[in-house]
Specification:
It is built from nine helices and nine strands. The chain is globular, with a radius of gyration of 21 Å. The N and C termini lie far apart (45 Å).
């Protein structure tokens, strides 16, 4: 039985995620009152049940019911019903743009401005985020990218590890990814930004990759990084971790971090791990 509770900030893409999971064969129920979660789980976990994949959408729209969610989660654990929490996050700036584009109001900002509603919701949801099994930041994600990521996380073969590894390149000047478990700073590597012909390119281009890696320091760093990650991953699997986010950062997130992320992604994929790659900032100036 795959029992997933889908939640997160309003406007972060929960509805889209529910659509994707439904297309993947999940029995989806959106905005179920938290007080009913335990009863629903009892039905799903019955021996004669034909339901083997469930996704429940729970968010701040539940308002007065929301405080009962933690009681329901405790009840699931007491009855040994296994569940996962998928939490969708997003930056305040993008959430605000999304609300303005749709001309909808935030559910907690009926008597105040939208930014205040977003801030209040973050405070309410913080504890749930800490309990989450998987956190996806949709700040720079299009629906297709979210679909691809969910597909890699929840389309699990029997012979694969339950751990999903997300490698995220980013620029420090745009902020560190909020869901990072490991962060590596590659700002000491050769910087293509100062080469006029390479500046408009990204780490996806061979010329940039060759420039970054044409250095003994770069080669030694990558070998050490690969050794460390290769050592850590089995430890995380043994611990039962299901989602590992590795952040690779340079100044702007276009050249060095993208190069190293691509190399690490290819290496982990070759070793049979389920890996997701995301270049968060390489389209930004």
């Amino acid at each position: 039985m795959k029992f997933i509770i889908v939640t997160g900030l309003s406007g972060s893409g929960k509805s889209e995620a529910m659509k994707v999971l439904e297309d993947m064969g999940f029995y989806c129920v959106d905005n179920l009152p938290p007080a009913l979660i335990t009863k629903f789980a009892e039905i799903c976990y019955q021996p004669n049940s034909t339901i083997d994949k469930v996704a429940l959408g729970v968010d701040i729209r539940g308002r007065k019911f929301f405080q009962e969610l933690y009681k329901s989660l405790n009840s699931l654990e007491e009855q040994n019903y296994k569940y996962e929490i998928l939490y969708l996050d997003c930056s305040d700036e993008v959430l605000l743009k999304r609300y303005k584009m749709t001309r909808r109001n935030h559910p907690l900002s009926k008597d105040t401005q939208i930014p205040e509603g977003i801030k209040k919701e973050r405070e309410i949801m913080e504890h749930l985020k800490e309990k989450s099994t998987c956190i996806i930041d949709t700040t720079n994600m299009k629906p297709k990218h979210l679909k691809d990521e969910l597909g890699k996380i929840y389309s699990v073969g029997d012979n694969m590890s339950k751990l999903t590894i997300s490698i995220v390149s980013f620029g420090f000047k745009h902020g560190i990814p909020i869901d990072s478990d490991l962060v590596f700073d590659v700002r000491f590597l050769p910087n293509p930004y100062y080469i006029e012909t390479l500046r408009p390119k990204t780490g996806d281009d061979k010329e940039v990759r060759d420039y970054v890696m044409n250095s003994k320091v770069s080669e030694e760093f990558y070998n050490k990084l690969n050794d460390m990650v290769s050592f850590l991953i089995p430890q995380y699997i043994e611990e039962g971790k299901q989602h590992l986010v590795i952040g690779i950062g340079c100044t702007g997130g276009r050249h060095r971090s993208v190069t190293i992320s691509n190399l690490l992604y290819d290496e982990l994929l070759k070793n049979g791990y389920r890996v997701i790659k995301k270049h968060r900032d390489f389209t930004l100036k």
